[in-house]
Design a protein that fits this description.
Elements lengths: L24 H6 L19 H4 L2 H12 L4 H9 L3 E9 L2 E5 L2 E4 L5 E3 L3 E4 L4 E6 L4 E4 L4 E10 L2 E16 L37 H6 L3 H17 L6 E7 L4 E5 L2 E6 L5 E6 L10 E5 L9 E2 L5 E4 L7 E3 L3 H8 L5 H15 L9 H8 L3 E2 L1 H28 L1 H7 L14 H18 L10 H6 L4
Parallel strand pairs: 8-18, 9-10
Antiparallel strand pairs: 1-4, 1-6, 2-3, 2-5, 5-8, 6-7, 7-9, 8-9, 9-12, 10-11, 11-14, 12-13, 13-16, 14-15, 16-17
Helix pairs in contact: 6-8
Amino acid sequence: MTFICFSKASAENPDRISTGFEILDDAQKDLRIDFQGQKKSLIDFEKMNVGEWLNYDFWEEKVALQEASPYWEALLRTKRQNEQFGRVLACHGRCIVSKGEAENLLQYRSKIVEGDEVRTDDKSYVWLFLFDGTLIRLAPNSSISLNEINISEKTMFFNIRLNQGNMYLLSRSRYPVKSQERRETDQVFFPLELYEANPKSQRGSISLEDYLFSGADAVVEQYDRVNYYQDFNNQFVNKNSYYFISMPNATIFGQNFSLEAYAAIAGDSYFKKRNYDFHVRDNNYASFNLRGYARKEEITMVNDTWYKVSLPAKSYEEIEPLKPLRINEFLTKRIPSILLARELYLQRFSRALFSEDVTKEVLAKKFGYRLWTEEEHLARKKFLIDFTRRLETSNLAVAKRYREKVLEKSSLKDARALRPEYYKYAVYKYISSGEKNREVFFIPRYNSEKRELWKYFNGIR
């Protein structure tokens, strides 16, 4: 969404009042469109300052600013329009969204919009669905801020900040997902509340051979369902995804890439561009920059390489995957049910956004989005790269100086980027669900199969 600022008379020409409305003339005409969900009143009662409201001088100055632009009312409405990012696909535990000073619990199908901060508590995980088909997974004690989403005819632009913890961003590929006979790894979310996406369960008696060496039919069938719905959705999904991901130590930006990242307050950062199996997407690329007010170097990311950035965040190193990185990456290695749920969500919530018949008027009135031009996207990207680097450099200096107070405010005991809590409970669920399913699937047929010694020799628990 468009960002607007009001500024006073300039020093060079005190008689001239600058509105700060830097927007193209052609786009100004579009501001006459009413957006879906907009309020008629422009008075923000929640943030109203009584002193300013009753101050005649302030009112007179505000009126002068408004008269300087014939589009001030529409511009102000546009600034306050919070566009939808997506929906919650699945939540395990306690998932929270902060909207200003208000907090609410997230659940299945909850809406997430611009300005929201999404975070998880202990033993809590969440999968978020963005309207272009992108998926985001947060581990326990993690937080992201959804800064902005901008839609053009060819691109969906996402500006997201990883405040702390672990985030896995999965960009939607058009290629078929390779079938595997091994069971799913991210078991913590099962059963999914989107029932159509759950794998079919086997019931009743099966043979010992199937029990010990097979049982893969249901798993393979799940991949077939994913590819069936993906092929159908490929007919209308026609936009590239541009991501601008900022963290305390680095900013990552590029198109159509998948990312695993860890961030800590006044600590190390780790990130990797994942580009294998179902992560591969055409025209994917990503770069990152580090901190420093005058540091403008952009480093091109190599596929499937882990990067580590330590304080003062002015240099980086390529590292071998550490044990915590390998474990957490394993948990998202086989997720056909999550991918199937993504495709079902695309049909329900996103199909109209990709339609070639959607004009800027329909996009605004029916869905509440402003249609950007590709030139505006490029200008926004250029601005954010420089502005975010300078802002995060200042934030880093403050966080380092007041580390203990910042941690206390965030209810954290330490600032380590890699912690067992990110994967410990998820690994437990993966192991325990495997044993549970083995017991459910096998029913002894013969008396010999019921004896403890026979079970021991044949690996039955």
